[in-house]
Write a structure and sequence with these properties.
- This protein is of the alpha/beta class.
- It is built from 15 helices and 14 strands.
- α9 runs parallel beside α10.
C-alpha cells in the first residue's frame, strides 16, 4: 500500500504562486495515483478542505506576516512546541504520516528537530524531508541588503538550524541546492536531491492568439497597430528584481509596451516609477486569478520578460515557453534549469542588456522560429504529471531506505555542535 505523506508550508495563500501551484499539482497527482496526501498551511481560520478522495488540506488559523508581504500568514512554533497542545501537533498525531516534508526555513523547521529528538510523544519516527524552493541568502539579501555578513549568517543558520534537523533534502533546482551544499558541514552531511518544478504545459501549449483580444490589450496598454507587447507575470516583491522592468522599457522604442500581471508589496513603488520614467508605456493588470484569462494573456503578447537573476526555478517563464512566447531571462539563477541560448534570449540582468535581448527577438525571424520550437519541446519535459510522479517516486524511495539509514537510529541536537570560530 502507498505511503501517506504530510507536507507543511507557510508559502501558501489564495493568490500565491509557485509553491502553492506545486502542492496543488501534488494533490491532483495523489488522487490520480490513489495515495493519501495531507497538506498543512496557514489560513484566516482553521478548517479542513477535502481534495478528492485522497487529498486533504488543513488550514491552521494564523496571524499575518508582520514584515515583508502581509498577504502571507505564518504557522508559528506554539502550534507544535511542547508543552503546548497546538493544532499542528494534534494533526500530526491524528494523521500518523509515513513521511513528513517541511517547506519552510524560518518557523516550522524547528518541528523536524523536535521529531528527531523524540520530544513530541505519540508520533512514529518517520523520514523528515526539508523542501527548499528558495535560497535563504537571496531572501536575506532582497529584504535586508546584500552583504558578506548576510551571506555568512545564512550559511551559519542553514548549517546549524536547518540542514541537520532533517534526514533528507530536496531542492527545486541546482541553483537552490548549491546553497544547501555550501552550508552542509561535514558532521551535518545530508543527502540533497534536485527535483524541478513543473507547469500546466498542455494548457499553455494550446493557447491561440485572438485578434479581438489582442486589439483590446493594445488599446488598454495605450499602443497602436505597431505595438509590441511585453509581458511580466509574477509577484511584485523585492526578491523579484522588478525594477529592471522599468530600466528596460525606458531604453526601448515607443512601440514597446510592458504589461504587468501580478500584485505584491512593491505595487505602489512600481506605479510611481512608471509615471516618472515610462509614462503611458506600462499597463498594470494586478493579480490574474482565472487561468483562462492568464492563458489568453500569454497568447496575445509578443515576448515574456523575466527579470530575476536569483529565481529559484521559475514556473511562469516555463509557461511562456510552452505557450510559444519568446522568453527574455537573466543568464543566472534557477531559470537556467531549462532556459539556455537555444530556446530563450538570455542577458545580463540590467536594463541595457535586457533591452538589447528584447530587440533581438524581432530582428531575426529565423532564429526566433528555431528557438520557439526548441522552447516548446523543452517545456514538454516539465509537465506536472511527470514532475509529480518523480516526487512521489522519490518519497517512496526515501521511505523504503530510511529504516536501514543512519538517520533512523541517530538523534541530533544542534546545541551539541559549537559555533565555528570564523563565524
Amino acid at each position: 500500500m502507498a505511503i501517506k505523506t504530510l507536507h507543511i508550508t507557510n508559502a501558501y495563500h489564495q493568490t500565491s504562486g509557485g509553491i502553492r501551484a506545486f502542492y496543488r499539482a501534488m494533490l491532483d497527482a495523489a488522487n490520480r495515483r490513489g495515495r493519501l496526501m495531507r497538506l498543512v498551511v496557514p489560513g484566516e481560520r482553521s478548517e479542513i478542505e477535502e481534495v478528492g478522495s485522497c487529498g486533504r488540506i488543513y488550514h491552521i488559523a494564523a496571524r499575518r506576516a508582520f514584515l515583508f508581504d502581509k498577504r502571507y500568514r505564518l504557522i508559528m512554533p506554539p502550534t507544535y512546541l511542547p508543552p503546548f497542545r497546538g493544532e499542528l501537533r494534534r494533526i500530526l498525531k491524528d494523521e500518523q504520516p509515513d513521511l513528513i516534508e517541511v517547506c519552510d526555513k524560518y518557523s516550522v523547521n524547528w518541528l523536524a528537530g523536535l521529531l528527531r529528538r523524540g520530544w513530541i510523544s505519540g508520533l512514529r519516527r518517520t523520514p523528515l524531508v526539508g523542501m527548499s524552493c528558495e535560497r535563504m541568502d537571496d531572501n536575506v539579501g532582497a529584504f535586508l541588503g546584500r552583504s558578506r555578513a548576510g551571506r555568512r549568517w545564512s550559511r551559519f543558520y542553514l548549517g546549524y538550524f536547518y540542514i541537520p534537523f532533517f534526514d533528507y533534502h530536496i531542492a527545486n533546482s541546482s541553483y537552490t541546492a548549491a546553497e544547501l551544499r555550501d552550508a552542509t558541514l561535514q558532521r551535518h552531511e545530508r543527502p540533497i536531491y534536485v527535483r524541478p518544478m513543473g507547469a500546466e504545459v498542455d494548457d499553455f501549449s494550446r493557447a491561440r492568439r485572438s485578434e479581438k483580444s489582442r486589439q483590446s490589450l493594445i488599446a488598454e496598454a495605450g499602443g497602436d497597430e505597431r505595438a509590441k507587447l511585453l509581458l511580466y507575470a509574477g509577484r511584485l516583491s523585492p526578491e523579484k528584481n522588478v525594477s529592471l522592468l522599468i530600466e528596460m522599457i525606458e531604453r526601448l522604442g515607443n512601440d514597446f509596451r510592458l504589461i504587468v500581471a501580478g500584485d505584491g508589496p512593491l505595487i505602489g513603488r512600481l506605479q510611481n516609477e512608471t509615471k516618472a520614467r515610462a509614462p503611458g508605456r506600462v499597463h498594470l493588470l494586478g493579480h490574474i486569478g482565472a487561468r483562462a484569462i492568464l492563458i489568453d494573456l500569454y497568447a496575445n503578447c509578443d515576448a515574456f520578460i523575466h527579470p530575476n537573476p536569483r529565481e529559484p526555478f521559475g514556473i511562469a517563464p516555463l509557461e511562456a515557453m510552452a505557450a510559444g512566447l519568446p522568453l527574455v531571462a537573466p543568464n543566472a539563477g534557477g531559470v537556467l534549469s531549462y532556459a539556455d541560448e537555444t530556446n530563450a534570449w538570455l542577458a545580463e540582468p540590467n536594463g541595457e542588456s535586457f533591452a538589447a535581448a528584447t530587440g533581438a527577438i524581432f530582428n531575426d525571424p529565423a532564429t526566433r522560429k528555431d528557438r520557439l520550437a526548441r522552447a516548446r519541446w523543452t517545456a514538454q519535459e516539465y509537465n506536472w504529471r511527470d514532475v509529480t510522479d518523480r516526487f512521489f517516486e522519490l518519497y517512496d524511495e526515501l521511505h523504503e531506505q530510511f529504516p536501514s539509514s543512519r538517520f533512523a537510529r541517530r538523534n541530533v541536537s544542534p546545541a551539541a555542535y559549537p559555533v565555528p570560530e570564523e563565524l
